[in-house]
Amino acid sequence: MIKQIINILIIFFIQYIPVFCQDKLDSLEIELNAAQSDTSKIRILLDITEHLYQFNPAKATFYADQSLLLSEEIGDKKGIADSYYNLGVINKNKGRYEYAIDFFSKSKLIYDEIGDKMGLASVNNGFGGLWFLTGDYQNAFRYFEEANILYAELNDSLNLANTCLNMGNALDEQGQHTPALKYFYLAVEIYEEIGDKRRLASAFLTFGEHYESRGELAVAEEYYRKALDLSKQVHAIPRIADSYYFLGKYYYNIDEKQISLHYFDSAFSYAQESESLQSMMDDARYLGDLHKYTGDFVKALYYSELYNEIRDSINKTQLNQQLSELEWEQKLNLEKQIREKESQRQKLIRNFILLALILVILLAAVIYRSYRNKQKANQLLAEIDQLKSRMFSNISHEFRTPLTLILGPLEEMIEEGASGRPSGKTLKMMQRNAKRLLDLVNQMLDLSKMDAGKLKIEMVQSDLIQALRAMILSFTSLAEQKHITFKYEIPDQSCITYYDPDKLEKIINNLLSNAFKFTRENGTVSIDVNISSESRATIRPPFTCETPVLDMTIEDTGKGIPEDQLSDIFDRFHQVEGSSEIDQIGTGIGLALTKELLELMYGKISAESEVGKGTKFHVHLPLGKDHLRENEYILIDTDKITNRKKKVTGEELISETMEEQLVYSEDKDDLPLILVVDDHPDIRSHIHQHLKEFRVFEASDGLKGLEIAVEHVPDLIITDLMMPNMDGVEFCMKLKTDERTSHIPVIMLTAKASVENRIEGLETGADDYITKPFNMKELLTRIHNLIDQRQKLRERFSREVTLQPKEIAITSADEQFLNRTIEIIEKNMGEEDFDVAALQQQIGLSHMQMFRKLKALTDQAPSDFIRSIRLKRSANLLEQKFGNVAEVAYEVGFNNLSYFAKCFKEMFGESPSEYMKNKS
C-alpha cells in the first residue's frame, strides 16, 4: 500500500508539477501578448525567465534573449542589465561558469552606470555563489561582502541576513569557524528581528551542521532541535522534514540506531507531505540500512527498492529535462539563424532606403539652393527698400527739429509784419539751425558725389598742426557745458604739408561730436594726435617716398557699442539697436561719411568698444599728394578756403547742452506754472519766449523734469517724446502713476509723425500730442484749453466735494486721491487738533505738494477743504437731530461755538439753529 502511494507521488512530480509550471507560464505569456508598451513586455519577459530558472533553463535562455533584444532595441539600460543578470544565473545553474562570469560582468557594468544599487547587490551575490560553487571561497566571501554592504545601504534586512549566512558559509569552508559564527549569529539576529521563523529554522540547521563538523555534537543537537521547534511553530513542512533528517543522521552517526530510525521515519512522513522526492530518496536510503540493522529485512528491502525507484525516476526526469533543453537549444539556434537572415534582409533594405534618401536629399539640396538664391534676391530687394525707407525716415526726423526752430520764428515775423523785428538771439538760433540743415544736405551730397566718383580731394598747403588745434579746441566750451573732461594731445611743432581741410574738418567734427553725444556728465573724451612718416609702399604701390602720416585716436567713456553691431557702425544709415534716446539718434550718415572720406584719401578707420565702458576710434591718414594720382586731387588757394562759410563746430554746439532754468518771480505768484522738458535748448528757449503770461520752469531730460514736477507741482507740462536718461513715454507714465503729479496735464511734442507714434504717446496718459514742426499759436491754444479744462474740473470737484463728499465716482487717480483724503478727514472728524499738518502726515505729501494738489483739484486750500468737510457733516447731523448745536459742533471738531456758527453761515447762508429749525 505504501509503495503504491510512493509511486503515485513519483508520477505526480514527474507529470503534474511541470503542468503547474506551464499554467503559470501560460498566464505570463497571455500577459505578454496583451502588453501595449515595450517596457511592459520587457518586464514580463524577465518574469518568465526567472520563473523558468530551475524547470527549463533552455527555455529560460530563450526568453532572456528576447528581453535582451527588445531592451537593446528601445535603449532600456535597466532591461539590458536585468537580461544579462538572468543569463548569468541560468549559465551558473547549468555549470557553464565562464559564460556566467561574462554575463554577470556585463550586467554589473550597466548597473554601476545607471546607479542601480539593488542590481549591483544581486549581481555581487550571484558572483559570490558562482565562486562558492567553484570552491574559491575567498573570492566568494569578497563578493558576498560587497552585496552585504549594498543591502545594508538599501535597508533590505532579508537579503542582508541571507548574505551574512552566505559569508559565514564561505568562512566556514575555509576553516575560519570562529569568524563564521559571527556572521551566522548576525543572520540569526536579523531573522529574529524581522520575525522570519522559516529562514531562522534553516539557519539553525546550518549551525547544527557547523557544530557537528567540529565535533561539538551536543551543541549541534541543540540547534537541530531548535530548528525542529521553530519549523513546527510555523508549520513549515519541508523544514520539519529537514530537521528530522538531520536529527536522524546525527543519531545514526553516534550509533544510536533505534533513535535514528524514529527520526528518519518522521522525516520520511514529512517529506511525503511536502512532496519532496529528493528528501524521500535520502530518507529511504537511511531507512533501508536501519531496518537491516534492526533485523526487519522486509522493510529494509522495501526502502532499498524505493530508494532505487525514486533515484531512477529523478534520473529520468533529469534526462527528460536535458532532452527538453536540447530541443530548446535547437529551436533557439534555428530562431537565431532566422533572425540573422532577417537582420541581413533588413540591413539591405536600410542600405537601399539610405541610398534613396541620399539621392532625395541631394535633389532637395539643389532645389533648396535655387529657392534660397531666389529668397536672397528677394531679401536683398526688401533690404534695399527698407534701407531707403529708413534713410528717408531718419533724414525727415533729423530735419524736423531745426525746421521747427526756423519756421516758427518766420511765421511769427510774417504775422507781425514790419513792426515785429526779431531779436538777435532769434536770428542766431534760426541761422544755427539753417546751418545744421545745410550740413546734413552737404553730407548727403558728398555721399552722392562719392558714389558717382565725382568727389575730388581739394588740397591746400599750410600748417596742419595749427588747423588741427583750431578744430579740436573749438570743442572745449562744449565739454565745459556738458561737464565732461576733454583731454587732447597735439604736437607742438609745425607741419607744412598738403591736406584737404574741409574733409579733415568733417572727419574730426563727426568723431568728436559722436564722442560728446554718447558721453554723460563727469565722463571723459580724449583725442591723441600724432604725425609720423612711413613708406607709401604700405599704403598703395607703386609709391615709396617718405611723407607725413596723421594718426589720431578719439576715445570716450560713453555707453559703448555691442560687439555684434561694431562691424556695422560704418554702414550708411546704420543706427545702434536699442538707442531710443534722441541724443543717440541721427541720420546714420556721419560715420559712413567719415569712413568713405578717409578711404577716398587712402586712409582708414577702425573702432573698438566695450558696453558700459566706452568706444575708441583709430584714424590713419596719409598726408601730402605724392601717393595720389593727378586726376584724384586739385590744388586750392588758401585764401579761397578761408573765405568759405564756416561749418557748425563745437562752439556752436554749446547751445544744445544748456542746462535747465528755473524762472521764478514773486510778482508772478498768481500765474500758472508750466514746466518745459526738452533736451534741445533752442526748442526750450523758443517755447519759453512765448509763455510770458506764465511762470516757466525748464528741464533738459525726463529725469530732471520729474524731479522738478514732484518738487514744484506745475499746472501743465510740455515734454518732448525722445530725450536722454528718461524719454517722454516713461516720463509721462511716471507722472500719471504718481499720486503727487497725476493731475498735471501733459502736452507731448515729437519729431515722430506716424499714427503709431501718436497712439503710443496718448496711451501713456498724455493729454495732447503735437508733431514737429508746430505752430506756436496752436501750442498756446492747446495750453490755454487744457488749463481751462483743468479749472472746470477743479470747480466740479469743489462743488461735488462740498455737496456730497462720499458720492464722487472713483474714475481716476485724482479722484482716488480725493476719496482717500476725505476718508482721512472723516475718520478724524471729532478730533479738534486734527489740522493740515496731521492730514499732510497721513497722506504722505509735503506741505507744498499737498497744497498745490488740493488747490489744483478743488480750488481750495487744505484748511478750507478740511473745514468744508466738517461743516457738511455738521449739516447732516443737524438734519438727523443728532443733538443741539453745541453737541454737533464738538462732534465735528469745532471747540469754538461762535467760530462754528460764523463758518456755517458763510457756507449755508443761515445759522446752525435756523438750519436745524428749517429742516425739521
Beta-strand fraction estimate: 5-15%
The largest beta-sheet arranges its strands as: 2-4-5-7-6
| Secondary-structure arrangement, i.e. CATH architecture of the domain at 444-654 | 2-Layer Sandwich
Number of helices: 33
Q: Which stretches are poorly predicted, pLDDT < 50 over at least 5 residues?
A: 1-21, 535-545, 578-586, 642-667, 801-811
Provide mean pLDDT, rounded: 77
In the CATH hierarchy, what is the superfamily of the domain at 444-654? Histidine kinase-like ATPase, C-terminal domain
CATH topology type of the domain at 444-654: Heat Shock Protein 90
Structural class: alpha/beta
Q: Main β-sheet, in a few words?
A: 5 strands, mixed
The count of strands amounts to 13
The CATH class of the domain at 444-654: Alpha Beta
> Which percent range fits the helix content?
55-70%
Structural shape: elongated
Query: Distance between termini?
Result: 126 Å
Overall radius of gyration? 53 Å
